[in-house]
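User: For a reading group we're discussing how well predicted structures match intuition. Take High frequency lysogenization protein HflD homolog. Before you show the prediction, I'll give you the sequence so everyone sees exactly what went in.
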Amino acid sequence: MNPTTPIHRAPDSPAARQALALAGVFQAASLVDELARTGQVDPRAWETLIEATVDTNPESFEAIYGGHPNNLRRGLDTLEALVGRKQANPVVLRYGFSLLLLMNKLRTNNDMMDSLGQQLTRIQGQAEHFGTTHENVIASLGEAYQETISTFKTRIVVQGDPSLLQSRMMPERVRACLMAGIRFGLLWHQQGGRRWKLVFQRKALRRALDSLS
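Assistant: Thanks. Here is the predicted 3D structure of High frequency lysogenization protein HflD homolog, as structure tokens, for the group to look at:
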């Protein structure tokens, strides 16, 4: 992430903050799909997700996503599809809603939340030593996901190129992305986000997206 990126103060509107957090969820979903199909990923979108997941004690709301809404542009574009303004990718939407479902399961499992918190604190130390997107950090995030979220009966089945999905570091990268989606899902819930609002308060989400464009 470019350290000179100006910090844009996060909007005070709860709906806009929920939209930003939800954009992180769907950005993760979008990158999982991209990794699985192409093996490549948008560097800025990827770094934003990983840094948000590794930083367990951000100094502000906007610091979570690197200080600028454009760092979540992939996710914001996906939300535009969710409210009907753009063509939706059904696979990405499925991943995103599955992440919200898994986040809710995690949120009510105190033991798993504690375990995950301890693992992320350790991974933050790794990131400070090696760098946020170093292979060791990504491998640790993937392992943390596998040991916690992957133990739920509800699973996210990733579709894509089987040879790519089995290639070196690809399972870890996909799981690290999914972990980032969970992280932003928890943030969305903390900001008052609820699934029913996505159905009954679409106008509020549209207005929030307009304010972030």
